[in-house]
Specification:
By secondary structure, this protein is mostly helical. The chain has two helices and no strands. The longest helix has 25 residues.
C-alpha cells in the first residue's frame, strides 16, 4: 500500500453566466411564490375608507341595473321525441 491517496478537493468549474442567472432567477421565483402564499393566507383588514362607503340609510345596496333595450328573442329548440322501442 505504498500508493499515495489523492486527498485534494475535486476541481469544480466556475459557474457560467447562464448557470448563475438560472440560480438567482430560481431564488427570486421562490421568494415571489412565498410572498403570494403569505398574501393569500394572511387576512387583510378593511381600511376606514371602505367602511364609510357603505350605505347607512338602512336600505340594502342594490347593484346598478342597466336599462334593457330590445332583448333578442330566445330560441328554444323543440324537444325531440324519443324513439319507441320495438
Amino acid at each position: 500500500m505504498s500508493a499515495e491517496l489523492d486527498l485534494s478537493p475535486p476541481e469544480v468549474p466556475e459557474p457560467t453566466f447562464v448557470e448563475s442567472l438560472l440560480r438567482y432567477g430560481l431564488f427570486l421565483g421562490a421568494i415571489f411564490q412565498l410572498i403570494c402564499i403569505l398574501a393569500v393566507l394572511l387576512p387583510t383588514s378593511k381600511s376606514p375608507e371602505q367602511e364609510d362607503t357603505e350605505p347607512t340609510d338602512g336600505k340594502p345596496a342594490e347593484p346598478m341595473k342597466k336599462p334593457k333595450g330590445l332583448a333578442p328573442p330566445i330560441r328554444q329548440k323543440p324537444k325531440k321525441e324519443s324513439k319507441k322501442k320495438r
